[in-house]
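cron nightly-structures :: item 1 of 1
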Amino acid sequence: MFNNKIEQVYFYVKLSRLACLYNIQYRSNDSYGTKQPKMFSNMTGDLREDRRIQKTKKLLADSLGQLMREKEYDAITIQDIIDKANVGRSTFYAHYESKENLLLHNINFQRELIHFTSNDAQHPMEINLPYLFNHLSEYGAILKAIHGTAIAYQIADHFIAIMVNRIVGYYKRRPMPPGMEKQLLQYRAEAVAGGIVRMVFCWVMDDTPIPASKMIAQAQELLAEAFPFDNRE
């Protein structure tokens, strides 16, 4: 992929700059950064919610979706949402802390947490890149509506965190690459993950002009170049 060392250094500098754009917030005292972002840690929900609660949550989500088609996301207030849903403020806060919390719940991060990581040997370092591209493309309209907002960066941070955790976890089970220190591994993982997530977001924002298969191949090439991998234990 690289013709010389200068091109390789330039490649990592560009990826590092992309990762820094997202103001990654998932770091912790764990040098491997294996903790999930706090804002996503309690999003499992109760799978046994009764139908009345499910109906109310769907009503609120649908109302937010309608409003996002009518005005900018930042201009939407809680009052707008409850007026559209015809429910009381106390009903809203019984289920969600904020409009951001409502939006994040309905992007279904729990499904993505299961599918984005994979034990299938065909996926580089057990990261399901096809799922990342296909999953985010489903939410193209939402991503466009929140483009440039804090919530968009938080969503990006979430995917970056999962990818970094997977990369670092991969090397916890194997010898470190020659000359690689733990902290350097963390930084490189953040740079590569940030670059790939940025690639997906740009692709979705541009209405996916390139076939997903080609984009996935590019992302896999970046990952393999930065982290030579062998999925055999």
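cron nightly-structures :: done
Residues 53 and 94 are 10 Å apart (CA to CA).
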